[in-house]
Inverse folding.
């Protein structure tokens, strides 16, 4: 035993001596004076913490310049103090990130830890700059190079010295509050107008123009904006607070002005946009010089505060929605040419528009006075009852199952979980003897697909293989519809196209009775965000909160799923509670997104269609001495079924 103890004791003494030597060597290395520091694990951070900038990343600090080199992603620590150069932050006034690095992590130079950092050089290999990456830093000028695609939320928030920003054409999205609090920002530079009007800005403060106000295109101050051909929408917040632009010309391809697109554009006086059918909330609101506006004769939506407090004198809208406060404070508005297709006028839409009254007012309504009086009008529109309107219309024959009409079919829990109520469906499209309909309300909340991989990530899957599709065509189909109801529901081939923004593959088609709308359908059949919005039933709200601990909003719109893939197949697209389509999508296992079922319903029985076809065939034989061709037969059959013509008229 004594011998064993002696041997073990000698072994431990040798180990202790080795550890002491290692400690002395380590201290001496870190104590050596040097003008440059280089490390993969380093700086003066404790070795036990093992912080690195990334597995393939090195860095040097020399005369105030931090140079980061290597390849691939830098590590995400969500706090600046975990990066190896943190202890030397006071001496860092410039950061150079060399080509090969693919990201700038969240908070890496943020949290106000780098007030002396005045300059950063970003390579084109970087694809994404993380949230709060330069929050409250001392940066004076930022160039986002070609190659960067995403600036996350609050990237440059509260950078008081920032005066100039350059945004490359590759940038596709800028997150919420990215430039909030940059009070000294004076110039915003871009190289490609088409790319700029397609950026997805997350909020008012995402756009550097909110503070910068002056827009420069390839070095020249922009006073006239000529939108390139092929652009279809001016992005939300695209020119918010921009006071340098005076004239905007848009090609016929532009049909939509986004929310806040030209809000508070102080110098804007003329807009030529003959293709625009939809103006989003605050689209031109607060642009105090805007007098001359040309929009499409098919304009069908003007959002909240769309033209508020502008000096326009006339507007024409044939159908659709005039939302809350759309023209509030438009004191020079004398003429409103309103079509009989207008079906809603929001709260205070024409508040403080005294010029509509005699003797200045010269408005026209293309329907009857009875139709005008029947338009749902919220409070604050008394002036319309006293305005000088001329009524030019006459009553028209009703068309059954016309688009936007509401029908009832089936029943489901809505007010509570004990009593089923009739389901209301909105008609979106007529196609021969069929009509595409979608539920008026969000009927319940569910995951798109309840499936995870080994790493607890949502599995990538197509519509045809999802639990969402399975439940809609079994559980919901059987609970909501009787045997008689089911006779009216067609089983159709449902296709899924690629994501129109990111190109993510859509997947294989399936044969369904019940399905979700696609990205294209919600964009084509709803004319604007207001129409796309949907509220959840009380049953959907309470059931979601009971099952998942969260759920849809009590008031206003709520999220609902679409069947197309988002940025990846782990995501599916959805409609935001504002009515905006989110092509990026959210994880298929999300539990805050509702279900708005869609159906193809048969409007007429096969027997009825057969009789009408026989009538058309006899008509051709008697009048033209021949059998009808396929196109001619389809036209006359559909026209007769839809009562667009009568047998006598035929």
């Amino acid at each position: 035993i004594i011998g064993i103890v002696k041997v073990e004791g000698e072994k431990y003494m040798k180990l202790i001596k080795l550890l002491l030597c290692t400690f002395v060597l380590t201290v001496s290395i870190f104590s050596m004076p040097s003008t440059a520091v280089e490390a993969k694990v380093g700086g003066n951070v404790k070795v036990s913490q093992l912080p690195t900038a990334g597995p393939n990343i090195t860095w040097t600090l020399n005369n105030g310049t931090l140079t980061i080199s290597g390849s691939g992603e830098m590590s995400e620590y969500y706090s600046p103090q975990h990066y190896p150069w943190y202890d030397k932050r006071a001496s860092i006034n410039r950061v150079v990130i060399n080509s090969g690095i693919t990201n700038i992590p969240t908070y890496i130079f943020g949290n106000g830890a780098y007030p002396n950092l005045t300059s950063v050089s970003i390579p084109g290999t970087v694809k994404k700059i993380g949230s709060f990456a330069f929050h409250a830093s001392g940066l004076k000028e930022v160039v986002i190079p070609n190659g960067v695609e995403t600036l996350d939320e609050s990237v440059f928030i509260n950078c008081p010295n920032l005066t100039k920003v350059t945004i490359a054409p590759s940038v596709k999205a800028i997150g919420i509050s990215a430039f909030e609090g940059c009070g000294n920002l004076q110039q915003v530079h871009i190289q490609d107008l088409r790319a700029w009007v397609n950026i997805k800005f997350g909020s008012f403060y995402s756009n550097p123009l909110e503070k910068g106000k002056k827009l420069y295109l390839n070095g020249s101050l922009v006073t006239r904006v000529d939108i390139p051909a092929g652009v279809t929408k001016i992005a939300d917040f695209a020119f918010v607070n921009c006071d340098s632009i005076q004239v905007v010309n848009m090609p016929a391809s532009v049909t939509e002005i986004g929310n806040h697109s030209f809000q508070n554009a102080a110098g804007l006086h003329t807009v030529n946009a003959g293709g625009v059918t939809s103006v989003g909330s605050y689209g031109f609101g607060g642009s105090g010089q805007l007098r001359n506006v040309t929009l499409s004769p098919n304009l069908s939506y003007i959002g909240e505060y769309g033209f508020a407090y502008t000096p326009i004198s006339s507007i024409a809208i044939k159908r659709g929605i005039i939302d809350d406060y759309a023209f509030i404070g438009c004191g020079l508005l004398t003429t409103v040419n309103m079509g009989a297709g207008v079906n809603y006028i929001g709260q205070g839409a024409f508040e403080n528009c005294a010029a509509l009254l005699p003797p200045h007012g010269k408005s026209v309504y293309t329907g009857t006075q009875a139709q005008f009086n029947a338009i749902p009008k919220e409070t604050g529109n008394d002036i319309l009852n006293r305005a000088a309107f001329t009524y030019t219309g006459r009553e028209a024959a009703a068309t059954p199952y016309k688009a936007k009409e509401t029908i009832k079919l089936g029943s489901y829990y809505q007010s509570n979980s004990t009593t089923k109520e009739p389901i209301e469906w909105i008609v979106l499209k007529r196609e021969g003897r069929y009509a595409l309909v979608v539920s008026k309300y969000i009927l319940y909340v569910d995951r798109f697909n309840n499936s995870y991989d080994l790493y607890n990530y949502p599995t990538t899957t197509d519509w045809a293989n999802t639990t969402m599709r399975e439940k809609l065509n079994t559980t919901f189909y059987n609970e909501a519809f009787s045997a008689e109801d089911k006779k009216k529901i067609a089983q159709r081939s449902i296709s899924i196209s690629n994501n129109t923004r990111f190109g993510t593959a859509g997947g294989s088609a399936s044969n369904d009775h019940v399905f979700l709308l696609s990205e294209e359908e919600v964009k084509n059949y709803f004319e604007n965000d207001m129409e796309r919005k949907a509220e959840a039933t009380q049953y959907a709200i309470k059931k979601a909160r009971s099952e998942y601990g969260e759920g849809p909003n009590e008031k206003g719109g709520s999220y609902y799923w679409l069947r197309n893939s988002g940025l990846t197949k782990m995501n599916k697209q959805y409609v935001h509670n504002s009515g905006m389509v989110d092509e990026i999508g959210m994880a298929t296992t999300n539990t805050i997104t509702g279900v708005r079922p869609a159906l193809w319903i048969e409007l007429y029985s096969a027997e009825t269609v057969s009789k009408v076809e026989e009538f058309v065939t006899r008509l051709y034989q008697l009048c033209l001495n021949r059998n009808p061709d396929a196109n001619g037969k389809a036209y006359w059959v559909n026209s007769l079924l839809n009562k667009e013509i009568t047998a006598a008229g035929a």
